[in-house]
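Suppose you are handed a protein chain with no further information: no name, no annotation, nothing but its sequence. What can you learn? This example shows the usual starting point.
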Amino acid sequence: MAKATTSIRRQLILMVATVLIVINVVALWSAHIYANRAAKESYDRLLYGSALQMAENINILDSQFFIDLPVSAFETLALSTSDRAFYSIMNGQYQVLTGYKDLPNIPFTQLLQQSSEKEKFIPIYYEAMYHGETVRFVALGKRLLEADSVNDVFIIVGQTLDARRAAATEISQMALQFVTLFFFITLLLLLFVIWRVLQPLQAIKQAITERSPQELSPLEANVPSEIAPLLKSINYFMAQLDNTLSRLKRFTAEAAHQIRTPLAGLNSQAQNALDETDEVLRQKQLQHILESSNVLTNTVNQLLSRATLTHRYQSHPFSPVSLDHVTKETCRELVVWALEQQVEIEYLGDIQVTINGDEFALKQMLQNIIENAIKYSPKGSVVEVELMVMDELSETSVVLQIRDQGIGVPDQDKEHIFEYFYRSPDNFASGSGIGLSIAKEVAEHHDARFHLKDNQPTGLIVEVIFPQRKGLSYES
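A reasonable first move is to predict its three-dimensional structure. Written in structure tokens, the prediction is:
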């Protein structure tokens, strides 16, 4: 019995949840990076705007600097109420003209290397520790020209990071709220979609569960194209099962009849033998009882053999089998019984054949065919068993032939001879009518086919044709 693994619904939910979590983690990480970058760029613009306003209000006349710091420059920095601001303005000799005199890590070298021709330098941003706090600075240079001199002036403006950190945190929290809401809404929608998509499977399950064990008609349901092959396979399986059960019922009923009739005959014959006073007639009746008992024993053995083979078809995998060896061995096992019937068995052919198959089943097939040939052969005749290679329609096949010299089988009976318990009306020999049916089942299990031909001048030729398949090989 197949063990149930994790349900499809659970697997889908787990995969969807995993994908959503990964997407949300990536989205949160991206939002965090964006929040920090956005806060940094926003407050860097404020720093740069303040420094630029200061730079625009610095002039020189007769080598004397005139600095008129606008209030708006400090108002810009004051937009962040939780931060402290610092500034310093220096001349080309790094002397502080106004502002803080101990600002750290001023990049004078970089400012001077930027350009010697531009009046305004490109701003340089950097961070440094100042009075125990991390401060973001912008350094901006400006070149003032006079008739006989060139003078550089440097503006450094700094601000602590509290406001920009708070802004980045606020943006990240907003992103977290949005992503969390998106996660749960999307998860709920996907759960609904999964439930809706799996409904056809649930409908099929419900339809099968509600059926009685005897109801094997095809399921009818409107399902998506992806599930249609599954429904088709289930209907095909149910049709096969219905066919198998129908055959089993017919076989069981016929088998019961075939066993019940000899038993009733045995009972009647035994009663007659008990009542008979004539010893000669009593001996004849006892002989009839023995013959009927043999027929019944043979029938039961054949039924048991078929049950065993049916089980092996499903439980025993194929393996390499030497067909010529199995054929010779079967002939040797039957030769004594054949001689008792005054019939000879002759094995012809010297090829060695190997096929993939079930040795036990193949032996049962050979035994049934050869026994049938011996049973219907006249005394003093020969049953020939031959393995040969035959080329047919550009395909090489191995053919097993069993030829007898009996009464043969009329053409009108050839199509029925493989039916269970079928016996020709013209056939007066005792038999169960099961042997050839079992033989044909074994052949079909090995992808082989049966062919019946008339022997000359009388008799029947049974051919079992094994087509070229993987695992089949022969050597002359």
